[in-house]
Amino acid sequence: MHRLIAISLATLCACLPGSSLPALAQDGAHQVAPPPSCVNNKGVTVSFESVEAGRQGLAAGMARRDGEGRPVVMRANYAAAPEAFQKFIDRHECAHHQTGDVDMPHPPRNGPEHLMNEAVADCIAMLRLRDEEGFGQEGLKQVSEALAADMKGIGFPEISVSSRLRNIESCFSRDGTAAQLIAARLKERGLQ
Ligand SMILES: [Zn+2]
User: Fold this and answer.
1) How far is the CA of 12 from the centre of ligand 1 (A)?
2) pLDDT at 53
């Protein structure tokens, strides 16, 4: 069995614990998906790096700039997550670079602005999975189930889980593309 970390705890949320693990969790070893293409809002290519850090057995991602200012997505313990969920994490983290979240002051944790950033990143991820990876209802189900199991395991209240899943589902069936959503978000922020 595998345990996954909720995306809302990842990324910007800077929640990879400081302690590092000696190795990836051995249980539930999945194939690790190749990273997607990702370019930030300034036209710089984002690189994906695997790190052996994070809670034991929990897959997590984090979007940030490295010591030299290069945009990166850190991937932790990906082998612990089903491939569909790994792909979701990658695109969610990429979205934080695409929308400019990474370079903006971090909003108060779990405040409305933070939750909006997370909802938009989830939405962009789902549109990319639908339009670029050919995800259908089965893929949506896999992502939703992994996310729900994960969030519940960490102790999120039911209402947080269900509202996040509703957002993901409605994004999956919405008109328009990820690129359009990103453009709208950047415009709203005066970044485009
Ligand atoms: Zn996020």
Assistant:
1) 6
2) 61
Three-state secondary-structure class, residue 171: helix
| Alpha carbons 34 and 20: distance in angstroms, whole number | 23
Q: Could you tell me the distance, in angstroms and rounded to a whole number, from the CA of residue 28 to the centre of ligand 1?
A: 24
Strand partners, 176: none
Cα(101) to centroid(ligand 1), Å = 9
Q: How far, in Å, is the centroid of ligand 1 from the Cα of 8? A: 5
Expressed in angstroms and rounded, the spacing between residue 136 Cα and the centre of ligand 1 is 23
Q: Please state the domain count of the chain.
A: 1
Q: Please write the tens of the pLDDT for every residue from 79-130.
A: 989 999 999 999 999 999 999 999 999 999 889 999 999 999 999 999 999 9
Reply yes or no on whether the pLDDT at 177 is more than 50: yes
Give the domain extent around 126.
3-188
92 CA from centroid of ligand 1 (Å): 6
- 177 Cβ partners below 8 Å, 6+ apart? 127, 131
